[in-house]
Amino acid sequence: MTFLSRLLPSRRPRSIAPSRSIPPRLAALVAGIALGLGLMVQDAAADSARVETPQAAVSLIADRIAIDGAPSVRIGLRYDLKDDWKVYWRSPGDAGYPATLSWQGSDNTVPEQIRTDWPVPVRFSVLGIETLGYKHQVVFPLTVPVTDPTHPLRLRLNADYLICSEICVPGQVALALDLPADAPPDRQLLADAAASAHLIDQYAAQVPAPAGQGLSLSSLTLSTGSDGGQTITATVTALPPLTAPDLFIEGPVNGTTGLISGPPTVRPGPDGTTTLSTPLTTPLPVTALPPVRVTVADSGRGLDATLTPTVTTAAADSGGTTLLLILGLALLGGLILNIMPCVLPVLSLKLLHLVKAAGTERPVLRRSFLGTAAGIITTFLIMAGILTGLKLAGTAVGWGIQFQQPVFLAVMIVLLLLFAANLLGAFTLRLPGVIGDLAARPGGGAFANGVFATLLATPCSAPFLGTAVGFALARGPVEILAIFTALGLGMSLPYLAVAAAPGLATVLPRPGRWMATAKRVLALPLIGTALWLGSILLPQLLPAPAASPSVQGLWVRFAPDRIDTLVAGGQTVIVDVTADWCVTCKINKLTVLDNATILPRLSQPGVVAMQADWTRPDPVISAFLARYGRYGIPFNVVYGPGAPQGLPLPEILTPDALISALDKAKG
């Protein structure tokens, strides 16, 4: 009973009628725990710094080979977890429990003064049960005080933890680590210690802090709704802006401190501010309001603060207002997509649609343009479904990622060449079976036109579109579906306008011999587009290079781990994320990055120009984009002593915008 009381969510009391049975999801959890008891991890010998279990490897690592007179040393408790297994944060949520550490048997230190730091956790949702923890790998940085630096340090750790997948297994390991007072230099030992120090630093950088990492807490308020429910709202200032934030509130629960909040509602605000509102699962006494611990997590960085919230009256929920604003931006972004450089490959399809509409009866013309609009919107809905599925499966998602797939490119090339040959009169395109029947119906061919045009017109981002897509892909399925629907409506607005007012299409002359000439002319851009796609496809069919392809001129290969070091040394760094299939990227390069005014600025001493090639899938570049809430390209950002967190630039670059960012980043 003691074990179950630690594991189950007794810290968050719920009202359960005595006559009702245990909820199925809780019963499933208990069953998994019971099964896991049969797989109890055995104690390991206390003379090992690393222990292997069926679920994970647990080890103690140090950033040095000897004490060397230091008053304290840094070590790390490292978990290398097998696939699908996780361990828990200090406040695990609805279920689970965190690791407890006993240093009994250690010498030359004070066990009670050993500090454990907790990197920002990840939220997991299973059967409606929400927990916080870590997957794959985590290192808990530990600061160990040394009583007498002239004597060896002897550490003995007994770690008791819970590790879960489909079942939960209590883990118990005994670890040992000894550091001499001093030691002769040993190349291999020093290299191992340097690697451990780097790993500890990596996770120490993810430990939430009261300040730094570009995050600050502007205010914390507590409001009570008409139903008596309490909500805490944190206003956070972030640079760069928050991309996928989460909020954890810890407060008094049955005499201890535990998680008392649910998932937050995120509302972007002006000037880099964001409000995060979360309902309290355990109410706070308003008359004697205790301080609470606030943790803001965002893509590996975090903010940690303890303060007493300010009591306010409940405000109307503006979540719907925020979504409406994003939907408006999506509508505008979809409309602007019609005039972006990335629509050049399908410009002939749009013109061909107008040519075919010449002299058509209004009812037929209306059905044709409605069919194209329906094809556009349907394609966006299908894209939303695919991206949602990939996101739920844990796969990196992005805008225009279909151009990274050779099969997609090959199919598009074949279709383009078939359409071009048909326009040139080489043959009459007859579609088989059901497809032909659908195309023969009123609006059927126009629908296919809309689908095809949309697939080819979305390899790059556009003003407002990047904001909308970033908001959508950082949220859930409902928001993704709604925002992509708005994008489709925006892109189809010109077709809907002609369908509503067919007279707009009467600017073209009535059908005649000129249409045959027009078709032959319009076939040429289709052939050009097929050749362009072929130039993208060919490198993807070749073996991937062992290293990143070299870049030309002043540009160096993208190395995100070097940016902080370069900025700390007083240098300015510009990162250009591009791809061979991104037409807007090519326009930016031609008009700005290779501009005679800009090139001298980028060539100056103290300026480093990095180029990230996203032509092929690259998880490092995808993660870099996600840090800024971007899921498509082009993307450019400038770093420097005056802007260590980076200054993102608009999708359509201008020389003035780039020069201004370089000057501001230089400081």
Annotate the secondary structure layout.
Layout: H1 2-7, H2 24-37, E1 50-52, E2 56-62, E3 72-81, E4 86-93, E5 100-102, E6 115-116, E7 122-126, E8 129-135, E9 137-145, E10 153-164, E11 168-179, H3 187-204, E12 215-224, E13 230-238, E14 245-253, E15 256-259, E16 265-268, E17 273-279, E18 292-298, E19 301-307, E20 310-313, H4 319-336, H5 347-357, H6 362-392, H7 406-423, H8 433-440, H9 444-456, H10 465-473, H11 477-500, H12 514-541, E21 555-557, H13 560-568, E22 572-578, H14 583-593, H15 598-602, E23 607-613, H16 619-627, E24 635-640, E25 643-648, H17 655-666
Parallel strand pairs: 12-20, 21-23, 22-23
Antiparallel strand pairs: 1-2, 2-3, 3-9, 4-8, 5-10, 6-9, 7-8, 10-11, 12-13, 13-17, 14-15, 14-18, 16-17, 18-19, 22-24, 24-25
Helix pairs in contact: 4-10, 4-11, 5-12, 6-9, 6-11, 7-12, 10-11
GO molecular function: protein-disulfide reductase activity
Pfam families: DsbD_N (PF11412), DsbD_TM (PF02683), Thioredoxin_7 (PF13899)
InterPro entries: Cyt_c_assmbl_TM_dom (IPR003834), DsbD_gamma (IPR035671), DsbDN (IPR028250), Thioredoxin-like_sf (IPR036249), Thioredoxin_CS (IPR017937), Thioredoxin_domain (IPR013766)
